[in-house]
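Deliverable D5.2: sample structural annotation.
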Amino acid sequence: MRYAPKGLKVNYWNWPYPENCIRSEALEAEISNGFVDEYGAVYSQDGKRLLKCADVKCYKVREGTESVDKLAFIGCDQLECLYLPYTLPEESFDAILGGTDTVGAISFWDKPYVPEELDPNETWSDYEVYIDEHDVVYSMDRKRLLYARYGFTESEYIVPDGTLTICDQAFLFHEGYLVLYLPASIKVIGDDIFGKDGGQIVIL
């Protein structure tokens, strides 16, 4: 477990589903009768249990949710980042994350979400990015540092204020030791962000 700034705890998984991950008929019936949000996630009728997660890159579980079904993430192959609300006890989360392509980065929040900081359906493509003068690639809103391209050769780099996420392996191809200066706005720091020579994180 790693601790991101401001106390946000992040876990990382990458494994395939066990073969017996099959929803029961009773659970499928509950899903059929559940509440569906605007992203396609399904909750129990009282809204307190997430039965089936939306298959999007980044998803914010609704505040008021108190539990997550163990098989809620079956078929969520696009999921890269998951936010869990303060209403969901951390110790109760035992859902299985996996799939052939799924990587789960989980942030447990101990306070209400800040809507303007989180986009639960954030996506991007190679044609929808911002590239700065150092060859570092961001999402268009510049809240997510995606990766540094091969042209990035700095030994020190200052991430601009307003950035919320440093993605996994963001500086993986950087050669040499890297000192990374991060703003206080950072919420999530990905895994294995430095290259083979390592680096240092300094919070400004």
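Annotation notes: Confidence is low (pLDDT under 50) at residues 1-10. Residues 60 and 115 are 10 Å apart (CA to CA).
The annotation will be released with the project's public dataset once the embargo ends.
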